Amino acid sequence: MQLLISSVCMALTSAVIGNAYFQKQQFYPAVVYITKSNASMAVIYIQFFVIVFMFGKLLRKIFLGTLRAAEFEHLLERFWYALTETCLAFTVFRDDFNPQFVALFTVLLFLKSFHWLAEERVDYMERSPVLGWLFHIRVGSLLTMLGILDYLLLIHAYNSTLVRGPTVQLVFGFEYAILLTVIASTTIKYVLHAAEMRTDTPWENKAVFLLYTELVIGLIKVVLYLLFVVIMAKIYALPMFVFRPMFFTIRNFRKALNDVIMSRRAIRNMNTLYPDATPEELRLSDNICIICREDMVNHSKKLPCGHIFHTTCLRSWFQRQQTCPTCRLNILRTPAVNSVAMPRAADDAAGAGAAGANAAAGAGGAQPAGNDDPNAVAAAAAAAAAAALDLDGNMGRARRPGVNGATTFSELFAEANRLPNGLPNLGIPRPPIPPMPMLSPFMMPPHFAYFTPPPLPPPPMPQDLSRFSDDELRAMEGDQRKHIEQRLKLLGNINLMLDSVGIMMNQYQTLTARLQLAAGPSTSTPAAPPATGDATESPAPAAETAASAAETASPSVYDMPSTSAAARNQQEEARQLKTAAGLGSGVAVVAAGNGAERVTIEDLGADEDDVPFTATKSQSLGNSEAEVDDNSSKLNELRERRLKFLQDNNKTANGSEKTTSE
Amino acid sequence: MAGSALRRLMAEYKQLTLDPPEGIVAGPVSEDNFFEWEALIAGPEGTCFEGGVFPARLVFPPDYPLSPPKMKFTCDMFHPNIFADGRVCISILHAPGDDPLGYELSAERWSPVQSVEKILLSVVSMLAEPNDESGANVDAAIMWRERREEFNSIARRLVRKTLGLAT
């Protein structure tokens, strides 16, 4: 078909030229004759297109070899769109419509199609099992050639615009600028793919690089398009012909931006909140990452729902969606929820040096056998997270009074979290964040600490007020409207938080009551007090929080790193730890009590380990040794009962768990 | 090192070859291109499609398994959940987010946990039990719901056709 057309065309052209020669016998008259005759010119033009087409085929043969079916299909599709847009562009520039103009557009389309093909080829790299050196030479030279051509044409367009003012060259300059960005992104992709091929292991960060490349190139393109539309609208008319590509570019950019933001959040959550899977856990599972179907040896993460994947696989999945691939648990929702349980985990991490050892010792004392301590902390974090999540999920269905307050609990925390930062122009340096590793700024725990000021009513103003300048003091006074608004907001939040704490306490108490019933009345009475005692303390300081926080609008903002402040910080930490432990265990039990699925015995054991830890901590607050021992023995009892309870519970839960994991 | 999509497809191919589910054969069209598979699906027993062997083609995206493949029957099909051109419309093949017919739960959508095997098994069960609410082929859906006999006879004719028998 193509051969037929081109040979017919060839014949026509030679007929036209031969006819001209035959009539005029000389070169110049013949040329003049041809250019004067419309029919001859039409034939010549068609011949010109055929030559361009053949030249394109030749180049394709050299640089790309045979096209795959998919490549050809895409090329054709895009070519028709581009052709339509070119025709639309003609309407804008109908005044300077001449052969040169058409030729320029032909060259543009010609180059464009090679850009598309190069893009396709580079995308194909990822899919093909083996690529020879020929492929690399071809792609490399094609990209270089296209890049140079784009650049030269862009410069030409720029210069001609400078010399002759805005003409159609404006469009070409813009088009070549866009093509340059395409070449840039294709080259980056090529380099990334090639780099990955050279190594034997999957390259973890490639997906991240690709995403960012897309984002940056997308931004450049969007800016270029907007600029172009504005300029064109001012000089000529609205350039309809760029609307379609502009729309797609903007959409892609938005998607890339969204992906980057969401995946960053999810990945950060993953890196900070979720523990690496331990060899133990890997051994217990089937040890195959279900995303890539390969063995998990190292670098795998356990999500709060208990599913384990490669860190890299999760990362690339999170760029699409922020859910657990297996059970679709929303990963982004968990950090806020985690804030209930996280302070404890964070503290665990913070105190890993001294206090951690303490905790381990405490745990060892409390339960001499059968508990794998190294995993305990991580497992506790996971369990608490899962439990907290379950709580959040179950609360909605629980139909208890005031449940509404509780479901928004996490949001509340998140909002309250932002508030200390909400008074930015106080002109006072923010106090240094307490040294808690693995915490990103948007996470809850460090700020959470601000919300549990010392137990006694006197507001915790820094003692050495003399250090502040007058201006700073005045700023602290905060008599402006927005400060008052912030305070009121804060108060409202505290109120809501208190409500939800109350609800949680209620639940906890009902559950302990239920537990006692389950375990039998004879042993139940002595065991309950330590835990509830721990926990019931929490509302009281929280109430005081309301009062003192109201007075000073988050006092810790004024915290100076003096020694007394540090000491107080510690106290706060300890207290908060207590609250958290109380809440955390409460949560765990609530989850279990609701028939909720995911609390395993191992997890609970780990969970308990923290309670002795709080006990040792609270020692510094003035508790006596004897009390601590007393506590731990009581806790032991309680633990045993809970274990039993959970064993029963797990049996029933196991069935449903299996179905969900499948 | 080849891309992760390729490795996963190879792994799935191996798995399907070593331990094929009943009534399903699937593999790449050619060893050069692991991103295009053809599959043969036997019509489930006890249904109007019993005895038929239906060829289909699966096309995988470069970012498989993060995105689902596309599946298309290459023979004539008359079924409520198969478009007239052979494209299969089941929720497992749709990425969460895009919802062509606006009724699917995101829990039924594509996720990397799914696999070729699961897709094909879902298709088999789809053949056995059409979902007449999705309505990729509305005519088929209505006929299936209201004139089951007619639907069955069309299906049996298709079965004979795929087997190369005279209708």
From TrEMBL, chain A:
The chain crosses the membrane at residues 42-59, 130-158, 170-192, 212-237. One of its GO terms (molecular function) is ubiquitin protein ligase activity. It is a multi-pass membrane protein. Residues 520-555 have a biased composition (Low complexity). Keywords: Endoplasmic reticulum, Membrane, Metal-binding, Transferase, Transmembrane, Transmembrane helix, Ubl conjugation pathway, Zinc, Zinc-finger. The keyword Ubl conjugation does not apply. Its main location: endoplasmic reticulum. One of its GO terms (biological process) is proteasome-mediated ubiquitin-dependent protein catabolic process. Residues 289-328 form the RING-type domain. GO terms for cellular component: endoplasmic reticulum membrane. Pfam families: TPR_SYVN1_N, zf-RING_2. Its EC number is 2.3.2.27. It catalyses: S-ubiquitinyl-[E2 ubiquitin-conjugating enzyme]-L-cysteine + [acceptor protein]-L-lysine = [E2 ubiquitin-conjugating enzyme]-L-cysteine + N(6)-ubiquitinyl-[acceptor protein]-L-lysine. Residues 520-578, 603-637 are annotated as: Disordered. InterPro entries: HRD1_E3_ubiq-ligases, TPR_SYVN1_N, Znf_RING, Znf_RING/FYVE/PHD, Znf_RING_synoviolin. It is found in: Endoplasmic reticulum membrane. CDD domains: RING-H2_synoviolin. Pathway: Protein modification; protein ubiquitination. Belongs to the HRD1 family. This is RING-type E3 ubiquitin transferase. It comes from Drosophila pseudoobscura pseudoobscura.
Automatic annotation (TrEMBL), chain B:
Residues 4-164 form the UBC core domain. Pfam families: UQ_con. One of its GO terms (biological process) is ERAD pathway. Keywords: ATP-binding, Nucleotide-binding, Transferase, Ubl conjugation pathway. PROSITE patterns: UBC_1 (PS00183), UBC_2 (PS50127). It is an enzyme of class 2 (transferase). Accepts ubiquitin from the E1 complex and catalyzes its covalent attachment to other proteins. In vitro catalyzes 'Lys-48'-linked polyubiquitination. Involved in endoplasmic reticulum-associated degradation (ERAD). Required for sterol-induced ubiquitination of 3-hydroxy-3-methylglutaryl coenzyme A reductase and its subsequent proteasomal degradation. PANTHER family: UBIQUITIN-CONJUGATING ENZYME E2. This is Ubiquitin-conjugating enzyme E2 G2. The lineage of its organism: Eukaryota, Metazoa, Ecdysozoa, Arthropoda, Hexapoda.
